[in-house]
Amino acid sequence: MKKSALAVGVDVPWVTSWTEETVIGVRPCATVAGRPALVQTDAAGFGRPQYSQNHLVRQRQTVLRMLCPMCGQPTQAGDRWTQVARQTPAGLLRRAGKAVGLSRDIEDRRVVIDAGSIAPLHKACVDRSLRYCPHLKADPNVNVMPFPAQWTVLPLLIEAAPMLETGELAGAAVLVVTFLQLVGITGRTDRDWRFRKAPREPQPAS
Predict the structure, then answer these.
(1) How far apart are the first and last CA of the chain?
(2) Are the C-beta atoms of 63 and 182 separated by less than 8 Å?
(3) What is the spatial distance between Cα 73 and Cα 14, in angstroms, rounded to a whole number?
(4) Do 129 and 205 form a contact (C-beta atoms < 8 A)?
């Protein structure tokens, strides 16, 4: 198949999945220190970009290595920005069941940045995506802000079990990593957090 004329990391976000990139099942993956994870073939630029779907492995790489999801290059302290992340007390994330594994050292009143599965971008990449991406242009919840110097990473898990060709279970189900959730930790607290509503969940970048 001929490679797309759309350039990965320029016209299409580096983290975006393409139609020729097949999910091939569960494998030990270096992006999660060898834990079982859903993995996907690597054929960025072939087929059509699936703007609403992040590539499983590349998404985990962006969070693990702080790579810009737009261009795929490393971000540096002082140049890490979010577009659709939401500030929220940690207690609201826990209440909504979106902070499984969040350390109890992070108190409920601590204000965190719920970035979902979207790693921070370079400011130049933020500006470019806001200029050209129709989805972001139409999103009333875009809120560009710097990402904190401290963060924590939480694995998003599903249960998966081996299957025979007949469709019968071949073993016990295990927890498998899909994406990595990124939570920035600010120096602020919200003593009235119990009276707040949970924020809208961030959507994939496009």
Answers:
(1) 24
(2) yes
(3) 9
(4) yes
pTM attached to this predicted model: 0.87
Per DSSP, the three-state class of 24 is strand
CB atoms within 10 A of CB 12: 20
Write down the domain spans for the chain: 16-195
DSSP H helical ranges for the chain? 56-65, 90-95, 123-132, 134-138
- Each residue of 47-98: pLDDT tens digit? 999 998 999 999 999 999 999 999 999 999 999 999 989 999 999 999 988 8
Distances (CA, A) of 142 to 36, 50, 67: 34, 21, 20
* Distances in whole angstroms, Cα of residue 84 to Cα of each of 47, 87, 167, 202: 27, 10, 40, 6
Query: CB neighbours of 21 closer than 8 A, spacing ≥ 6?
Result: 40, 41, 42, 43, 44, 46, 47, 55
Helix, coil or strand: residue 194 = helix
- Three-state DSSP class for residue 202: coil
Radius of gyration of the chain (CA): 18
Distance CA 197, CA 57 (A): 32
Report which residue type is found at 204: P
Within 13 A of 46's CA, how many CA atoms are on the CB side?
9
**Distance separating alpha carbons of residues 78 and 148, to the nearest angstrom:** 9
Task: Report d(CA 136, CA 139) in Å as an integer.
Answer: 5
Cα dist from 144 to 141, 149, 154, 197, whole Å = 10, 16, 23, 21
Q: Token pair of 45, please? A: 């630029």
